[in-house]
Amino acid sequence: MTASLFKAGSLSEADDGPLYLRLQSMIRSGIADGRLRPNDALPAERDLATNLGVSRVTVRKALRGLVDEGVLRQRHGSGTFVSRSADRIEQPLSRLTSFTEDMRSSGRVPGTRWLDRSTDRPSAEEATILGLPTGARVTRLSRLRLVDGDPVAIEAAVVPASAIPDPLRVDASLYDALAAAGMHPVRAVQRLAAISLGAAEAALLGVMPGAAAVAIERIAYLPDGSVIEFTRSHYRGDACDFVAELSLASQADGFEAAGPTMEG
Ligand code: 16G
């Protein structure tokens, strides 16, 4: 498939303009007409350059631009692939749901690779956020989260050890374990920021060092206002969309006044 797309002379058949833009539009049209499909590997940079009679700098510039747009993705050490763009995961920002629930409700298969499951003394920041008394311990749950077998996020959760004394009790879902302990959160505050991944995290997520990601902090609360979860996550920028429903402030007020209340 890809060999026919990238054959010698084919670049000159593409639009006019700078070579890297012409290579980009050739790749885009290959994707549009199905000659390039999600997860297809592109030829190595040097082969593309030789086949098309352009410099490696041009090839690199073209690929980098398409990676930044999410059209392609680069895996550290294994090359450049067509993104599974139709397969991006969606994380709702207006409901308090778990990763497992979100993935299952969109027909995807959630997976977990444990990086750390232990009890520990909290850092000063964690003790403050969780409102822990002196001497209290925390349970740490750090995991690589996978969707249909692909790594999409690294999540490092800290919960009071009083809620989950045995970290091994958490299996596929932290929220299921909290629910089993009668401590499912009812409210959370979440903060998102754009970051570039460092080498170690990029390797876990199978992307290039420096790839874009979304850093998310979630502080989740129990009905009595105490904090039950402090989680820091890094979600792959090329794989995840965060979706929030917005309404006019005046309408939202109206709905709230007319709608049911949370209190039973
Ligand atoms: C989501 C939450 C995370 C929570 C996890 C529980 C975000 C950014 N993060 O991934 O804070 O700990 O769900 O999922 O949404 P689980 O029950 O599948 O372990």
How far apart the termini lie comes to: 60 Å
Estimated helix fraction? 25-40%
Report strand order across the widest sheet. 4-5-6-9-8-7
What proportion strand? 25-35%
Q: In CATH, what is the homologous superfamily of the largest domain?
A: Chorismate lyase-like
**Number of individual domains:** 2
Explain how this protein is built.
The structure is a single chain. The protein is built from ten helices and ten strands. The N and C termini lie far apart (60 Å). It has helices at residues 2-5, 10-13, 19-32, 45-52, 56-69, 99-105, 124-130, 174-180, 199-205, 249-258; strands at residues 72-75, 79-82, 89-92, 110-120, 138-147, 150-160, 187-196, 212-221, 227-236, 240-243. The protein has 264 residues and is an alpha+beta fold. The protein has two domains: 2-85, Arc Repressor Mutant, subunit A (Orthogonal Bundle); 89-257, Chorismate lyase-like (Chorismate lyase, 3-Layer(aba) Sandwich). A hairpin with a 2-residue loop joins strand 5 (138-147) and strand 6. The chain is elongated. The strands form three sheets. The chain has a six-stranded antiparallel sheet. A two-stranded antiparallel ribbon has the order 1-2. A two-stranded parallel ribbon has the order 3-10. The structure holds 2-acetamido-2-deoxy-6-O-phosphono-alpha-D-glucopyranose. 2-acetamido-2-deoxy-6-O-phosphono-alpha-D-glucopyranose is lined by residues 91, 98-100, 155, 157, 173-176, 216, 218, 229, 231, 233. GO terms for molecular function: DNA binding; DNA-binding transcription factor activity. Keywords: DNA-binding, Transcription, Transcription regulation. It comes from Kaistia soli DSM 19436. One of its GO terms (biological process) is negative regulation of DNA-templated transcription. InterPro entries: Bact_HTH_transcr_reg, Chorismate_lyase_/UTRA_dom_sf, Tscrpt_reg_HTH_GntR, UTRA, WH-like_DNA-bd_sf, WH_DNA-bd_sf.
